[in-house]
Amino acid sequence: MRKRSSMLRWVAVASLAAALAAQDGGGERAKPRKPGSKPASEPVAAAEEDDGVPARDLLVAGDGMKRYFMIGPQEKKKAPKEGFGCLVVMPGGPGGPEFHGFVKNIWNNCCPDDFVVVQLVAPKWVAEPSVIWPMDPGDQPGMKFTTREQFDATLVDVAKVQKVKLDPKRTYQLVWSSSGPPAYRMALDEKPPFAASYIAMSVFHDGEMQLSRAKGRVFFLDHSPEDTTCKFADAERAKSKLTAEGAAVELVTYKGGHGWSDEPMVRLKKGIAWMEEHRAGGKRTGR
Fold it and tell me: What single string gives the DSSP state of each residue in 159-171?
């Protein structure tokens, strides 16, 4: 059995995450590793609140701009026949490693036992990017790949280099704030790289996506009516428009405005379970 973090421990991490999310892309930027540097192969040092969560700090093909953390699987946990379930996290705010403790607690408290969590780190092609998760050439000067390309390359690295088999039918994305708009776009790609989306506290730019592809897609939306950074009306419009196009959409609310407040682990666990249940052709698995 996985050892569970205490409520006080994850609340402390969630409070930090809330403060970072409230920056909505601002704050101190993490320095990217130099391209060509060797990938880290040792486990990330565990903080006290992590309870020994297995995590690794990795680079795709040694590329410092394609950094990610892999959390799990549990020690000696054998992959299910179809592969591990996977939650791919693209943090909001500046998109850097600042949320790593928070994300580890999501794996520790909210995911089924046969899951791994993959946390992408947003590449910084310039010191102060205006777009955290670039989707189109030119979103950041000098960028060499898009967020979708980084997402795909990371999942390939997990499977082929880290030798962790993933079940594409149980691979989901978790995003919030600055990572919300690209997540909507990827979810409405012709062939999205995941089976369902958990999108929190995000704007909804329906003019940038192909809503006609929403039929059969799965969205769990998490938004505070008190949010003054990303208006609650965006979540309501997303639910209305996606549902009208045939998507499965659940919208939950919380108190406290923009950030991970009001018992976020409770909602995250509910949302992951809901995606498990409603993914296309899926049945609820895990505990």
Answer: HHTS---EEEEEE
Q: Flag whether pLDDT at 115 surpasses 60.
A: yes
Q: How far is CA 104 from CA 89, 109, 225, in A?
A: 11, 9, 27
3-state secondary structure of 272: helix
pLDDT per position as a tens digit, 21-60: 444 433 222 333 343 333 333 344 444 444 679 999 999 9
Question: Which tokens sit at 274?
Answer: 């809901």
Per-residue pLDDT tens for 119-173?
Answer: 999 999 999 999 999 999 999 999 999 999 999 999 999 999 999 999 999 999 9
Q: What is the pLDDT of residue 2?
A: 56
Give the position of tokens 């421990």: 9
- Residue that the structure tokens 């995000």 belong to: 202
Could you tell me where the beta strands, DSSP code E, fall in 125-216?
166-176, 196-200
The tally of CA atoms less than 13 A away on the side-chain side of residue 277 is 11
Compute the chain's Rg from CA coordinates.
Answer: 17
Q: Is 201 left (phi over 0), alpha (psi -120 to 50) or beta?
A: left
Query: 121 to each of 71, 146, 281, how far by Cα in Å?
Result: 14, 13, 31
Q: Say how many Å lie between the first and final Cα of the chain, rounded.
A: 12
Residue pair 254/262 in contact by the 8 Å Cβ criterion: yes
pTM: 0.84
* Letter string b/e over residues 117-151, b meaning 16 or more CB atoms within 10 A of that residue's CB: bbbbbbbbbeeebebbbbbeeebbeebebbbbebb
By DSSP bridging, strand 166-176 and strand 196-200 are parallel
CATH for the 7-278 domain, from 2.30.30.100, 1.10.150.130, 3.40.50.720, 3.40.50.1820: 3.40.50.1820
Q: Is 231 left (phi over 0), alpha (psi -120 to 50) or beta?
A: beta
Cβ proximity of 280 and 247 under 8 Å: no
Kindly give the pairing relationship between strand 166-176 and strand 84-90.
Answer: parallel
